Each structure stands twice: as structure tokens, then as C-alpha cells.
UniProtKB/TrEMBL annotation:
<dbReference type="InterPro" id="IPR038528">
    <property type="entry name" value="TEL2_C_sf"/>
</dbReference>
<dbReference type="InterPro" id="IPR019337">
    <property type="entry name" value="Telomere_length_regulation_dom"/>
</dbReference>
<keyword id="KW-0963">Cytoplasm</keyword>
<dbReference type="GO" id="GO:0050821">
    <property type="term" value="P:protein stabilization"/>
</dbReference>
<dbReference type="GO" id="GO:0016020">
    <property type="term" value="C:membrane"/>
</dbReference>
<feature type="domain" description="Telomere length regulation protein conserved">
    <location>
        <begin position="166"/>
        <end position="274"/>
    </location>
</feature>
<feature type="region of interest" description="Disordered">
    <location>
        <begin position="281"/>
        <end position="300"/>
    </location>
</feature>
<dbReference type="GO" id="GO:0051083">
    <property type="term" value="P:'de novo' cotranslational protein folding"/>
</dbReference>
<comment type="function">
    <text>Regulator of the DNA damage response (DDR). Part of the TTT complex that is required to stabilize protein levels of the phosphatidylinositol 3-kinase-related protein kinase (PIKK) family proteins. The TTT complex is involved in the cellular resistance to DNA damage stresses, like ionizing radiation (IR), ultraviolet (UV) and mitomycin C (MMC). Together with the TTT complex and HSP90 may participate in the proper folding of newly synthesized PIKKs.</text>
</comment>
<feature type="compositionally biased region" description="Polar residues">
    <location>
        <begin position="288"/>
        <end position="300"/>
    </location>
</feature>
<dbReference type="GO" id="GO:0005634">
    <property type="term" value="C:nucleus"/>
</dbReference>
<feature type="region of interest" description="Disordered">
    <location>
        <begin position="1"/>
        <end position="26"/>
    </location>
</feature>
<keyword id="KW-0539">Nucleus</keyword>
<dbReference type="InterPro" id="IPR051970">
    <property type="entry name" value="TEL2_Regulation"/>
</dbReference>
<dbReference type="GO" id="GO:0042162">
    <property type="term" value="F:telomeric DNA binding"/>
</dbReference>
<feature type="compositionally biased region" description="Polar residues">
    <location>
        <begin position="1"/>
        <end position="12"/>
    </location>
</feature>
<dbReference type="GO" id="GO:0051879">
    <property type="term" value="F:Hsp90 protein binding"/>
</dbReference>
Length: 482
């Protein structure tokens, strides 16, 4: 009886209704789909190669989205292709553009709805006590048996790194130059900034070598925030050993076989390092680990959270009869940029008019020239109240006077900002005593720019510089009167 029932069940599955051989003609959309299918497949395979060869995360993410959409159109009946990538605004826009809107007139073009598998109630005569029925071979229940399970949330998981984090600066230099272990290379890049601040003596022993490695470092893996990590490490090395590293970086700015991106990186690093050196109370600052550090554990943020809650409760339950005098600000400290400002400034301004084979500031590389003018202005502003400020101001005014009629607006903005920096950083008495002729020439040029320059920003900057000159004259008039 069991065999007959099973046979009856199988025969009933075999006698399921089949589609009629008289099928209607394919729609024009399907004919067009079949005609472009080989071309679409060829383009898709070429795109796979481009995605695998690219090291840019944005390009790889774009390739994944295109592959998912294209595979869904080529094989709509198959299992969907799904990659794991970080979604951003661009990915959402791409997926929104690829979503088909249902059309009432042509339901065949819309995506076919998923119909649930209907479960039949077995007849009483076909059910045997305690014996499960045999499922038909090739049924959907065997293939899609795990669809009912909810996927586990792995968004908070972290990848386990087999390589240990370097503990010394020399280990980082070795890992970044000779290591073929990409996990060790990435760990060294993440740990370098903190090691430089914690071991200044060891950093000074290899500071120039480390600066050279970081300046030529290229992204070998898809490291999150690679440019920021490299720049912060370079700034940390420059701050730790400013004279030697600044001398090396300024010499490389005018060297051959460097890209424009590397030259602008040098200017950015010098500016950020000068800002850090001139900041009051810099030595009392404790270097903090970056928020992007993958080795930071979530438990490290627990202590400040509960301590803040406890402090708030104690503060709310405490009665204060008198809070006393307000706290004093941080104690003043000498400007550390004072002793090294010349290493940052003068090598950059001395060779700007000497063209190289691949680098010409007065020619096609006017973008770098504009960045150089802005950088010199910032360095001049940060050198306020330093002993070398007068010499820097005189050299910067000569630099401005040589380029005052430059055709690029970005360069002229940098020159006007540099003039304002000179007026703000050099003491008024020294300006009128040592640079009277330069100030007269700058005044006439500023008045002409404020009236006739075609760029609005240049006119505004010229007016601001003229106002600084007027304040300078008003400040010195009471001193000169009897």
C-alpha cells in the first residue's frame, strides 16, 4: 500500500499541467533583448576586468553595482548576484536609476512577481501515520530551503588581522619599504603617527628617511583614508624634527621627477606643521588616535560615557554657595615656529623663477604657483612676533612685486593674501623703518587692483589690505606727534 501511495503521489506530480506548446510570439522587447544580449555580455566581461584591475574604491563599487544590475537583466530567472560594498550617496543614485518602474500597458516588461509556493493539504488516505512523504525530485523546496532564515547582522564585525601592530618607528619604516605582507604594511601606516609622537628621540634618528618614504608612498591596498594617514604621519615627522625635515621637503619641492600632486603635498605638509608648531601649549597636548583606527576597540569609549553620567549626577546633587573666580586660561608658551621659520620659508621663495624640464612655475604650472603664494602667506602670518619676521616680510613683498601682474586670478589672490600677512605679522615700527619704499609701491598697486581687477575676490582682498595700511598709519601718527 505504501508503494502504491508513493507511486500515486509521484504520478500526480508527473501529471502536473504543462505549458501549452502554442505559445504566443515573443514581444518586441524580448526580441530586442535577445539581439543585444551578446554585446551586453561582452561589455560586462570587459567591465569585470576593469573593476579587478582598479585600486580605487569608488571604481570598484561602481563596477559591483553595474554587474548586479546587468546580471539581473540578462538572467532574471536565476539567483540574483549580490556583492558586499559600502553604500553611499552615489550607489543609492545608481540603484535608483536602474530600478524599473511598472508600466500598466506592458506588464511583460516589468519584473515578474514572485509567487509563493502553494502548499496542498494532503488527503487523509495518502497520509501514513509516522511516515513522512517523499518529496518529488527537483522541487523548489529543496533548493530554497534556507530562504526563510533571517541573515545574521555582520555590520559590526571586524576583520581579524594576523599581523601584529609595529611597536617601533624603525619597524614601520621597514614594513612600509620592504614588507610584502599587506596586512603588516597597513598596520604600520595606521600606527605610525602615534609612534612618532610617543618616541620623538627614535623618530629624529630616521626622520629624513621616514619623510622620504612617506613622500613617495603609494597606495597598495584599499586603505580607508590613505591620503589622510600619509599626510598626518608626514606632519608628525616634520613637527618632531622640523629643521631637518623641512630642509629636505623644501629641497624636493624644486627637484625633478616629482608630480604636481607631490609638490602640492609638500606645501600642505609644511603649512600644517607650521600651524602645529606655532600653536600655544603644543607640548602639553596628548596625541590622540584617529577615529578611523581599526585597532581601536569599542570598549575604550565606555569609561568616558559612564564617567560623564556620574559627573552629571554629582553636579546636579551638589549645592554651590560660591563658585569662586573664573579659571585662568592656559599659560603662555614660546612660539616654537620662531627658531625654524627660515627653514620653511626661504628655500621655497628663492627658486620660484628657475624653470625645470618638467616643472615651470612661471609657465603652465600656475596652479602650483598659486598654492605656493598662499603657503608663503600662511607661513608669514604664523611667524608673527618672531625675530625673522622682518626679513621674511621683505622677501615676500619682493615676491609679490615680481608677480603682481599675473594673469591667473588664483595666483593674484595668493599675492594679495601675502601682502595682508606681512601687514599683520611685521611690527608697524619695523615696517615703516625698514620697508618704506615697498609699502609705497604696494599701496599704489593695491589701489589699482581694488579699482580695476576683473576678479571680485581680488578686489575685496585689495580693499582689506588697504584698510590694514590705513590702520597702520593711524597707529603711528600719535607716536610721531609731539
Amino acid at each position: 500500500m505504501r508503494s502504491s501511495r508513493t507511486a500515486g503521489t509521484v504520478s500526480r506530480w508527473q501529471r502536473a499541467p504543462r505549458p501549452s506548446p502554442c505559445t504566443p510570439d515573443p514581444s518586441p522587447a524580448l526580441i530586442m533583448h535577445a539581439s543585444v544580449l551578446p554585446e551586453l555580455l561582452a561589455s560586462l566581461m570587459a567591465g569585470v576586468r576593469c573593476r579587478l584591475d582598479s585600486s580605487l574604491p569608488a571604481v570598484r563599487r561602481l563596477g559591483m553595482i553595474v554587474a548586479e544590475v546587468a546580471s539581473a537583466r540578462i538572467h532574471p530567472e536565476g539567483p540574483p548576484l549580490k556583492f558586499q560594498y559600502e553604500e553611499d550617496e552615489l550607489s543609492h543614485e545608481m540603484l535608483a536609476l536602474a530600478t524599473l518602474q511598472p508600466v500598466a500597458d506592458s506588464p511583460s516588461e516589468a519584473s515578474p512577481p514572485v509567487t509563493p509556493v502553494a502548499t496542498e493539504t494532503p488527503d487523509k488516505e495518502n497520509v501514513d501515520d509516522g511516515v513522512p512523504q517523499a518529496q518529488p525530485e527537483g522541487s523548489d523546496s529543496e533548493l530554497d530551503s534556507d530562504d526563510e532564515f533571517v541573515p545574521y547582522d555582520m555590520s559590526g564585525d571586524r576583520e581579524m588581522k594576523s599581523s601584529k601592530t609595529p611597536m617601533y618607528v624603525r619597524d614601520c619604516v621597514e614594513a612600509l619599504t620592504t614588507s610584502e605582507d599587506w596586512e603588516r604594511w597597513e598596520a604600520a601606516l595606521w600606527a605610525l603617527e602615534g609612534l612618532v609622537f610617543r618616541n620623538p628621540a627614535a623618530t629624529r634618528e630616521v626622520s629624513v628617511e621616514l619623510a622620504k618614504v612617506l613622500l613617495h608612498l603609494e597606495e597598495k591596498t584599499s586603505v580607508v583614508g590613505f591620503e589622510g594617514l600619509r599626510q598626518r604621519a608626514l606632519v608628525a615627522v616634520t613637527v618632531t624634527d622640523p629643521a631637518r625635515v623641512a630642509e629636505y621637503l623644501t629641497s624636493q619641492f624644486y627637484a625633478v621627477n616629482y608630480s604636481l600632486r607631490q609638490r602640492m603635498d609638500i606645501l600642505d605638509v609644511l603649512t600644517l606643521a607650521a600651524q602645529e608648531l606655532s600653536r600655544p601649549g603644543r607640548l602639553k597636548r596628548t596625541p590622540q588616535r584617529s577615529s578611523l583606527d581599526p585597532t581601536s576597540q569599542s570598549g575604550c569609549t565606555v569609561t568616558p560615557a559612564w564617567r560623564a553620567v556620574v559627573d552629571e549626577r554629582v553636579r546636579s546633587k551638589t549645592r554651590h554657595f560660591s563658585k569662586g573666580s573664573p579659571r585662568r586660561g592656559p599659560a603662555g608658551s614660546p612660539n616654537e615656529f620662531n627658531s625654524v621659520a627660515g627653514y620653511f620659508f626661504f628655500p621655497l621663495i628663492q627658486r620660484f623663477d628657475r624653470p625645470l624640464v618638467t616643472f615651470d612655475l612661471l609657465g603652465d604650472d600656475q596652479l602650483v604657483l598659486g598654492r605656493l603664494a598662499h603657503t608663503l602667506g600662511v607661513l608669514m602670518y604664523l611667524a608673527v612676533n618672531t625675530t625673522v619676521a622682518v626679513s621674511m616680510g621683505k622677501a615676500l613683498l619682493e615676491f609679490v612685486w615680481a608677480l603682481r601682474f599675473h594673469g591667473d586670478a588664483y595666483v593674484r589672490r595668493g599675492l594679495l593674501s601675502a601682502v595682508s600677512s606681512v601687514l599683520l605679522s611685521v611690527p608697524a615700527e619695523r615696517l615703516l623703518a625698514d620697508l618704506p619704499d615697498e609699502l609705497l609701491e604696494a599701496r599704489s598697486w593695491l589701489a589699482d587692483v581694488a579699482e580695476k581687477d576683473p576678479d571680485e575676490d581680488c578686489r575685496i582682498l585689495a580693499v582689506k589690505a588697504l584698510l590694514l595700511l590705513e590702520k597702520l598709519k593711524d597707529k603711528l601718527l600719535p607716536l610721531s606727534s609731539p
